[in-house]
Structures are given as structure tokens and as C-alpha cells.
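Thread: Retrotransposon Copia-like N-terminal domain-containing protein, structure

OP (GT): Posting the sequence first so everyone is looking at the same thing. Length is 121 residues per the record. Can we get the C-alpha cells written out before standup tomorrow? I want them in the notebook alongside the other entries.
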Amino acid sequence: MADQNQNVAAGSNQGVASGADQLEKDALYIHPSENCSLVLSSSPLDGTNFLAWSRAVYVSLGTKMKIGFIDGTFPRPVIGSHNFEQWRRVDLMVTSWIWNSISKDLVEAFMYVASSRESVA
């Protein structure tokens, strides 16, 4: 009976990704309710509220496991690598969320950044 329980317990870990692999999968996941029109901060960046705005963006991205896209802990993979296209798709989504959280008067200054990280740097 004990051997049977050990086998079940040992088998339950099969197929579970390592911690780093799981974090990468979570960061590259976009929930069906997340789309390009999502807004990260209820108060758009207007040039006078950067500290409050950046905190709201940080918290919002943290709940979505996307902080690594703006703080550099989940850098762009090598072009052609197995997850580059997925990373780029998520980074573009994060960039659109950031743009949606910037006032209309300022957003044009951010339109030609190369990544979401550059949007908040």
C-alpha cells in the first residue's frame, strides 16, 4: 500500500515544468480576456503623475506576470529561437497596454519604441 502511494506521488510530478520553465510559460500566456484595448492605469500618464502612474503599471503588469517585459528580467530571445514569436506577440501586447495608459497628448512620443521595456525606461 505504501509503495502504491509513493508511485502515485512520484507520478504526480511527471509533466510538471521546472520553476524557470513554468515562469516563462506564464509570462508568455495571454488570457482570452486580455486584448489590445486593456488599460493598466486609471490615471493616464500626463507628465505630472509619473510616480503614481508607474506604480499602477507595475502592479497591473505584476498581476499578469508581465513585469519581466519592462524590468529586463524576461529579455527578448534570439530571433529564430523557439519562443521568439510568442515573446514578441506578448511584448507588443504589453506595449499596447502601456500606450493605452498614456494621455493622448503624450502617446505619440512613445509610438516608435522597440519594446515595452523602452516605453517605461
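GT: Both are above now. Quick notes for whoever picks this up: The CA atoms of residues 92 and 114 lie 9 Å apart. The mean pLDDT is 85.
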